Amino acid sequence: MAKVSPLLPCAVMALLLSVLPFPSIAGDPDFLQDICVADLASGVKVNGFACKATVTEDDFYFKGLGAAGNTNNTYGSLVTGANVEKVPGLNTLGVSMSRIDYAPGGLNAPHTHPRATEMVFVLQGALDVGFITTGNKLISKTIAAGDVFVFPRGLVHFQKNNGDGPASVISAFNSQFPGTQSLAMTLFGATPPVPNNVLTKAFQVGTKEVEKIKSRIAPKKT
Fold first, then answer.
1. CB-facing half-sphere around the CA of 37: CA atoms within 13 A
2. Residue 142, helix vs strand vs coil
3. Alpha-carbon span 178 to 181, nearest angstrom
4. pTM of this structure
């Protein structure tokens, strides 16, 4: 029987390393099936949602973005999401959308999306938008109907309607569930609360100012 070259295992390993992505640069894994409609009621904990057995066309359908949302609230804006919680068929597909409506003077307060880059398309009105880099540089622009603007993943960003009429956008995300973390709510409305001595030190203000902000931002008890 012919001898196996001692270099063969090394060659095989080198070939594998050349075609397999390193963890630091690998993207989402390829699909192993056509669809994996989210079973939102499942108790199975996975990175995403377990697949449900019975699928219908309604799992891929949502009509909630056609009408303007009610902006009669503190910030004068409303986000209507079309993510995997609303469209179970998005599970494993890595995309989602939302509609954001703004009253005159309305603000989508500074926030981040930890799992996605966001691209907005202006349906009507005009908005002052911007994001802040990790080097504390503000990148901002005024955008109007038909314009597109991109907010990179994880960076703090905002949109403000400084016009006299309503405004609205459609947002697209490269995640089925991008997540939203509002800076004000995160810091002043967390449960349990962030200690006052942390906030007074961070913002260089007194305890009374911190308590005042908390009282306005904290969810109302029912």
1. 14
2. strand
3. 10
4. 0.83
The pLDDT of residue 5: 57
**What φ, ψ does residue 87 adopt, rounded to 5°?**
-125, 85
pLDDT in tens, 178-194: 999 999 999 999 999 99
Between CA 186 and CA 55 the distance in angstroms is 37
H or E segment and range at residue 118: strand 118-124
- Cβ-contact 103, 76 below 8 angstroms: yes
Tokens of 144: 């109007």
Concatenate the DSSP letters of all residues of the chain into one string: -PPPPTTHHHHHHHHHHHHSPPTTT--SPPPSSS---B-TT-----SS-PBPS---GGGG---TTSS-----SSSSEEEEEESTTT-GGGTTT--EEEEEEE-TT-EEEEEE-TT--EEEEEEESEEEEEEE-TT--EEEEEEETT-EEEE-TT-EEEEE--SSS-EEEEEEESSSS---EEHHHHHHS-SSPPPHHHHHHHHT--HHHHHHHHHHHSPPP-
Structure tokens at 96: 């989602």
**Res 4: pLDDT:** 52
Task: Report the SS3 class of residue 206.
Answer: coil
Residue-wise burial string across 163-175, b where 16 or more C-beta atoms lie within 10 A, e elsewhere:
beebbbbbbbbbb
Task: Give the model confidence (pLDDT) of 42-66 as tens digits.
Answer: 988 888 899 999 999 999 999 999 9
